[in-house]
Structure formats: C-alpha cells, structure tokens
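User: Hi! I'm working on a homework problem where we have to compare a predicted structure to a textbook description. Could you give me the structure for the chain below?
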Amino acid sequence: MEPYTNQEHDIFRDQFRRFCEKEIAPLVDEAERNQVFPRNLFPIMGQMGFLCIRYPEEYGGAGADKITDVILREELSRVCQGIATSWSGHSHLATYPIFRLGSEEQRQKYLVPAIKGDKIGAFALTEPDAGSDTKSLRSTATRTDQGYMLRGSKTFISNAPIADYFVVAAYTDKAQGYHGISLFLVDAQTPGLSVTKLDKEGIRSSDTGEVSFDDCLVGDNALLGGKEGNFNLIMETLNEGRVGVAANMVGVAQAAYEASLRYARERVQFGKPIGKFQAVSHKVADMATQIMAARHMVYSAAHLIDLGRPCTLEASACKLFASEVAVQTAREAIQIHGGYGIMREFPVFRYLSDALVYTIGEGTSEIQRNIIAKQIGL
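Assistant: Happy to help. Predicted structure tokens:
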C-alpha cells in the first residue's frame, strides 16, 4: 500500500492477523448462531493493546495513527464483521467524543476503563424517527435543580445490551436548532434507562438494542465536557468513523474474495476447476480489482486524517464505494459457490448480510452521495 504504509504497519498487520485467527475465529460460529458478543474478548484485546488503539499512551492507548486503525479494522472484519461492529462501536463511537471533549474526570471514569476493556460503551444517537436526519432527534434533556432529566428512545444501538455506559445525544435547547443537541454520559444502571435486545439478519454477533429513557435523571457531571451544544462533535465523530467503516467493508470484501478464489480452484465441474471457466475467472478478477481500488481510497482518506487535513469528501466517497464493493463481491461469491453459497456451513452468505448493513449503517449510500454532491459544488 505504498506510499501510505511502512514496515511497522506491515508487522502490525501480521501480528494482528495471527491474533484474529487464533483468538477470534474460534468464537465466530457460536457468537453468530446465538447473537451474543463474546464479552470476554474486550479485556483480552485491551491487554494486548488492540482496543481503542488511537488514544494516547497516557490513557492506556497505543497512540496509533489512522493507517494502523484501518489495518486493524480490515483484518478484524475479514474474520467477522459482527465482532468488528462491536469493536468499532466501542473503540471509536463511544470513546472518541469523550477523548475530544470530555473533562479529565470523565476521561478517567469512562475512557481509561474503556481502553482497558473493563467497561463497554455504546453511542446512542439513532432514533425511530431520526436516522439519516440527525437534526430531527426527539430525545430531550431538561435542566432541573438536580441535573438533567432525559426522555426519549434510541434504536439500532450497537453494544446496547452489553454496555456499561452510553454516550447519549439529546436536545437541551430546541430553540437553537441542531446547535442545541448535547451529549451525555449515562451509566447503564441509571434508573429510568432500559434496553431491549433486537433480532437481526446481519452482524448477528454484535449485540444491538433499543434504549429508552423514561424520566432518567443524571447529574450535571454527565454533560460531556460540561458544555451544551455538541452537534459539531457528533458530525466529526461520524466523519472519521466513515473511513473506519470503509476499512471494515474492505475486510468483508477481502474475505468473500478469498473464499471465492479458494472455491474456484477446488471445485471441479466438466472435468476442470471452475476457475478455468471465463465466466467465473472474470468475476474473481473483478473482485480483486474493485477491492484494490477500495483499499487505496480508504488508505488515502486515513492518510489525510493523519495529516490533520479535512476529508469530508474522501470519507464519504470511500465509505460509499467500499460498502457497495463489499455487497457486490459477496453477491458474486454466493453465485460462484452455487447452492453451497446459501448453506450455513459456508460463510459467504454471512458476508452479504453483513455488507448490506453498511450500505445503511453509519450513513446510507444515498446520504453519502448527497454529501459528495455538496462537496463537489452541486
């Protein structure tokens, strides 16, 4: 991946790939079947330095650059996107706002144990009536003598059933429009907070749930950074997250490609491996080409983040392209596998259901096209 990677990146990839194959791959079948994330994995990853790797060493992080982050994401998703989803929801969405704006007290209470894997976080933003349109949130946080009273509900929240704390977006002042949206740190055991687990067809090994806030009272110290009005931080969190999600999708596509290449070499029909037939070989060649393009887009955007340069256009473009490449690659993988492609003993159908989640999740393909169109002056 010249010119974006160096020898240290290559060593990290090899090291983390071995970890994934040894420690994570054996957990996948049971986690997918039961729709339960293997929670004990987080402390292990924290101890190994594979959790929340972007944060400074002073908080227990690895101080890694964004290139290292996308390498980790690609390798993790290559093994299991469901587990990668929970990792991402915790290691970025539920921790980045705390690192960026949280008080030192909040960082010590939430960020440090999150980096260790002792606490699991969830980012509670999406609502039943507010998905792509973040500004239409209905959740409110009303100021009282005792703190803030949270009311509302969230849905499709990764890690919700296993979370120890939530980063919650709610209006503190609707008169200010979206500038009146603030973020709160809410412990999972807070009275008035309840979680309902959701049943899904994709990313099954990532626990996902609905979260309700019924007169949920939190203290003033729950307000992130002690400051109301955090909409810009929400957008910043999502923007960098899109580059990460794009890397996840490269990993899913890579897994589907590797399965297809292996099957095309092994499956014999009409006296020869099916990979010798042009109809199949061209499918696999297209997979390799599209994955190469998606990977370069992701690394280019990650490099801009490492340089501290704006990358709104690049983040949306690589998220759009990589997620749709993952879907197309997984579909072709099923076609190459034939009847075996829809059997649970083969993982290729899982790759498709997982990839489809991310043409919707963290910004739909349509929203990405809207952002791109705006960025290019339309």
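For your comparison, note the following. The chain is about 50% helix and 15% strand. The longest helix spans residues 231-266. Good luck with the assignment!
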